[in-house]
């Protein structure tokens, strides 16, 4: 009886670890302009399990309303060491995510051509750095004719959930984070 229970628990743990070792593919497409739309597709088990979500301006406004309602008032801000640990966590997570493809075409303009030119000068080195990354293409076109924001972006990433767990557990179990979480109660 006890031996059967032990094998069942070990089997469930093994199945969970095997399921977390299967890569997850995330594909996103963003269209900016007159009809802004975000399409997100998440595929797991090599495409056998897929979730697809599309969001337009109405869904984004409803999501923003919900977010404002659920915000806590008087919440204590995290300490600087927690913010540093959060940036370290973000870096470790990004190292474990593989960018398969990223493309962005963007046209931005303001009512003031001088401000548009300043923004273009600020954006040019960022675009050059982004284009230096493998499998990444970014184009930026300043629009001096008036205020506008148009563009399209598409990207695919792949990650293995099991590889994300160690840095997240390290972050959650760090003394600073635990102290901050328990001080909030």
Outline the structure in words.
The chain has 6 helices and 6 strands, in the order H-E-E-E-H-H-E-H-E-E-H-H. It starts with a helix and ends with a helix. Helix 3 packs antiparallel against helix 5. A 6-stranded mixed beta sheet has the order 3-2-1-6-4-5. The chain is of the alpha+beta class.
What distance separates the N and C termini? Answer: 42 Å
Q: Indicate the low-confidence ranges by residue numbers.
A: none
What structural class results from the helix and strand content? alpha+beta
Counted beta strands: 6
**How much helix, percentage-wise, in residues?**
40-55%
Strand order of the largest sheet: 3-2-1-6-4-5
How many helical stretches? Answer: 6
SSE topology string? HEEEHHEHEEHH
Label the overall shape: extended
Overall pLDDT confidence: 86
Percentage of β-strand residues: 25-35%
Instruction: Round the Cα radius of gyration to an integer and report it.
Output: 22 Å
Write the topology of this structure:
Blueprint: H1 2-20, E1 24-32, E2 37-44, E3 49-55, H2 57-70, H3 80-95, E4 98-109, H4 113-132, E5 136-142, E6 148-159, H5 161-172, H6 175-183
Parallel strand pairs: 4-5
Antiparallel strand pairs: 1-2, 1-6, 2-3, 4-6
Helix pairs in contact: 3-5
């Amino acid at each position: 009886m006890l031996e059967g229970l032990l094998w069942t628990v070990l089997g469930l743990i093994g199945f969970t670890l095997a399921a977390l070792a299967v890569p997850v593919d995330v594909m996103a497409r963003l269209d900016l302009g007159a009809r802004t739309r975000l399409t997100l597709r998440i595929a797991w088990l090599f495409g056998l399990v897929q979730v697809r979500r599309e969001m337009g301006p109405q869904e984004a406004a409803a999501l923003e309303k919900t977010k404002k309602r659920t915000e806590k008032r008087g919440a204590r801000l995290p300490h600087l060491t927690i913010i540093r640990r959060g940036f370290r966590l973000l870096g470790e997570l990004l190292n474990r995510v593989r960018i398969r493809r990223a493309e962005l075409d963007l046209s931005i303009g303001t009512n003031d051509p001088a401000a548009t030119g300043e923004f273009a000068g600020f954006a040019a080195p960022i675009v050059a750095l982004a284009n230096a990354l493998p499998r990444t293409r970014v184009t930026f076109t300043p629009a001096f004719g008036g205020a506008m924001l148009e563009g399209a972006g598409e990207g695919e990433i792949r990650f293995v959930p099991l590889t994300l767990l160690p840095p997240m557990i390290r972050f959650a179990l760090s003394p600073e984070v635990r102290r901050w979480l328990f001080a909030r109660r």
